Amino acid sequence: MTMLKSGAMIGCFISLWLAVCVCAADANAQAAPLFSFSDDFSAAALKPEWSSTTTSLAVNVAPSGQRFLGRAGGNDGLFNDTVKLTLTGIPATGVAIVEFNLFIIRSMDGHEPFEFIGNGRFRAVSTFSNIKNSFVTEVSQSYPWPGSPPLTGAQGVETLHYSVLNLSHYSDSTYHLRFQVPYAAQANSITFQFSMSGLQDITDESWGLDIVSVVIRKSD
């Protein structure tokens, strides 16, 4: 009788272990992306998925040596520009998880909107400020919520080593942004748009993109 109970217990443990393994395998299969794209701009030539109707694009190099997406003919980044990332050969439906580093360069003061549009439907707008709190206490930015103090949520400050024209501002700040965009693709392609407006001079206010990744997973 004891042997029967022991055998039953061993069988139960084996069944439970197999069930856990099957569940883990299913979870891994579901977690596997259907499509992925990434760009850290380490290559000299820009990938063909990038385009702009406002400027010619190129890989810029910050004074720190950091490479990122900016305008051709300089290393100050982007200005009042719109940049598009177009991906083809994607699943007809899914959820696109878009992540990237946004560089806010020089004298941004929280009034210049950055806009992200996913597949023409998803839209997010935020402002960012590099103003030093010790100079102006009443300024704010809308990221991550309206009325936030300057540099709220920044992952790095003055890491690009740009020179500043206005000593009341930090030279640059870095934000890691992440958006989840459900979509139904047209002709098996999807477009993500990044833009900024209201900048007064590219040598005083500019921006850039780095470490961009898009992972598409099955819709729930």
Q: Summed up, what is this model?
A:
This protein is mostly beta strands and 220 residues long. The protein has one helix at residues 2-31, and strands at residues 35-39, 50-52, 57-61, 67-71, 82-88, 93-106, 109-118, 122-129, 156-157, 172-184, 189-196, 205-217.
Q: Which descriptors would you attach to this protein?
A:
220 residues, 42% strand, 12 strands, 1 helix, disordered N terminus, mainly beta, globular, 5-stranded antiparallel β-sheet, Jelly Rolls
Description:
- The protein has about 220 residues and is mostly beta strands.
- It has two domains: about 1-30; about 35-215, Galactose-binding domain-like (Jelly Rolls).
- Helix content is about 15%, strand content about 40%.
- It has one helix and twelve strands, in the order αββββββββββββ.
- Strands 1-12-6-10-9 form a five-stranded antiparallel β-sheet, with no helix packed on it. Strands 2-5-11-7-8 form a five-stranded antiparallel β-sheet, with no helix packed on it.
- The longest helix has 30 residues, at about 1-30.
- It is globular, with a radius of gyration of 23 Å.
- Mean pLDDT is about 85; it is low at about 1-30.
Q: What is the topological layout?
A:
Layout: H1 2-31, E1 35-39, E2 50-52, E3 57-61, E4 67-71, E5 82-88, E6 93-106, E7 109-118, E8 122-129, E9 156-157, E10 172-184, E11 189-196, E12 205-217
Antiparallel strand pairs: 1-12, 2-5, 3-4, 5-11, 6-10, 6-12, 7-8, 7-11, 9-10
